[in-house]
Amino acid sequence: MPTSYRYELWNGKKVVGYYDCYSQILGHHVVVWEESTLKQSYYKKARSILVPLTCRVIVSNHSDTLVRTVLDVRRKSKRQIALLQRGIETCIG
Predict the structure, then answer these.
(1) Quick count: other Cβ atoms within 10 Å of Cβ 13?
(2) Cα–Cα distance for residue pair 4/7, rounded to 1 Å
């Protein structure tokens, strides 16, 4: 059974949703295609959403710090956020 990873969509103030994928996200950003590969046109460039990765401090005590990797959606529209929340997509990062 494949393991799925859940990443928070963070708008700078609160969590607005979650992004699920089957692999860990590594790198500086995530590229998510707006259409599935079967529905994309042959004659047009495929449209994609580029989402940067950031780290968010959850708890910071004297002895330990809990940091979570989140997708930064501050500059994304509501339509793009809805596409990210749509379901399990392919992660490219």
Answers:
(1) 7
(2) 10
